[in-house]
């Protein structure tokens, strides 16, 4: 699939690694102004995409900054050891983006709708996160060295609260004056393989809902006055993407029969797009797909993400201490 397909259906690419692959495939060469590094672990692979020039920002549709993608298919399995390793990788990569004092005040924001499971990742992560800001005032004896004051909110969505999420965050920021905001949100992927197996960390902030066609106020340093790190996990895929992939695989099979393949080649270039549009027309072309086991997937990955965040923000906390504070 190329950029024209995504533009035709108004699909925003949430994952920088996917945007990079699409643009690079279209150009047929590496993208000037983008640096890519890759790392391999036992249960995960990491791709670091750095957008360093304005021209690359325009080509990829991603603000300049760092995008770290952790791909771990084992997240779908009931494998505690693999989950622990991914949480540790997440902690390590998140810590590499932190440019704050050891006693910095941090705000966690779980974006999304807790009533809709595919969009509930943010609130679920908040449920499992280690918050400590109140302990510094009311129970300092419970604190260990190497812990930071961390507070957390799950502000809901506009349809529930009637308030733009960015407005709620801005109000909280003015009151507690954090030195860093970490937002967690569900993303839309360009492949079903990435659902609940991929974690993206970005130091550029986030535009909530952009992957599913919702245009909300961007949450970044410019809008909040505070550095923002965004952590996202794909939980849905656009139906048009699935349809297009199906067509492409079908065409691969057709090529074994030159006569049938020639019939397809004689059709109008926009024939496939027109058919997909007609199928998705009842949903105005904006139909998102998620697996039926999304409940358990969200539960597992929210614990991994929360654990990784807590280890990064509280470097002295062990897994045993983490569970003790949560309980």
UniProtKB/TrEMBL annotation:
EC number(s) recorded for this UniProt protein: 3.4.24.78
MF terms (GO), sorted A to Z: metalloendopeptidase activity
Propeptide stretch(es), residue numbers: 1-14
InterPro entries listed in its UniProt record: Pept_HybD-like_dom_sf, Peptidase_A25
Keyword Cytoplasm appears in the UniProt entry: no
Swiss-Prot/TrEMBL catalytic activity: Endopeptidase action with P4 Glu or Asp, P1 preferably Glu > Asp, P1' hydrophobic and P2' Ala
PTM entry text: Autoproteolytically processed. The inactive tetrameric zymogen termed p46 autoprocesses to a smaller form termed p41, which is active only during spore germination.
Keywords: Hydrolase, Protease, Zymogen
NAD recorded as keyword: no
Gene3D superfamilies: HybD-like (3.40.50.1450)
Pfam families to which the protein is assigned, alphabetical: Peptidase_A25
GO process annotations (BP): proteolysis; spore germination
Assembly description: Homotetramer.
Family assignment from sequence similarity: Belongs to the peptidase A25 family.
Function: Initiates the rapid degradation of small, acid-soluble proteins during spore germination.
Protein name stated in the entry: Germination protease
């Amino acid at each position: 699939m190329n950029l024209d397909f995504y533009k035709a259906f108004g699909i925003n690419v949430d994952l920088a690694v996917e945007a990079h692959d699409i643009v690079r495939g279209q150009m047929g060469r590496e993208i000037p102004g983008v640096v890519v590094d890759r790392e391999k672990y036992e249960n995960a692979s990491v791709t670091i995409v750095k957008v360093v020039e304005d021209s690359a920002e325009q080509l990829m549709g991603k603000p300049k900054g760092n995008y770290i993608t952790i791909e771990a298919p084992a997240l779908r399995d009931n494998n505690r050891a693999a989950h622990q390793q991914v949480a540790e990788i997440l902690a390590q990569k998140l810590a590499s983006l932190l440019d704050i004092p050891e006693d910095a005040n941090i705000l966690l924001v779980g974006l999304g709708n807790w009533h809709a499971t595919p969009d509930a990742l943010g609130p679920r992560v908040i449920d499992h996160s280690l918050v400590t800001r109140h302990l510094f005032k009311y129970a300092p004896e419970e604190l260990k060295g190497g812990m930071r004051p961390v507070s957390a909110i799950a502000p809901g969505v506009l349809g529930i609260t009637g308030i733009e999420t960015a407005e709620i965050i801005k109000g909280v920021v003015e009151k507690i004056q954090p030195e860093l905001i970490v937002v967690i949100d569900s993303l839309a992927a360009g492949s079903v393989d990435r659902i609940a197996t991929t974690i993206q960390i970005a130091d550029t902030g986030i535009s909530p809902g952009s992957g599913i066609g919702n245009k909300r106020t961007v949450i970044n340093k410019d809008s909040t006055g505070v550095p923002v790190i965004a952590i996202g996990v794909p939980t849905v895929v656009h139906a048009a993407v699935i349809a297009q992939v199906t067509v492409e695989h079908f065409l691969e099979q057709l090529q074994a029969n030159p006569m049938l393949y020639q019939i397809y080649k004689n059709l109008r270039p926009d024939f496939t797009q027109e058919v997909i549009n007609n199928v998705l027309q009842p949903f105005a072309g904006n139909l998102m797909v998620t697996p039926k086991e999304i409940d358990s997937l969200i539960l597992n990955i929210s614990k991994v993400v929360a654990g990784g965040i807590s280890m990064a923000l509280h470097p002295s906390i062990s897994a045993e201490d983490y569970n003790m504070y949560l309980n």
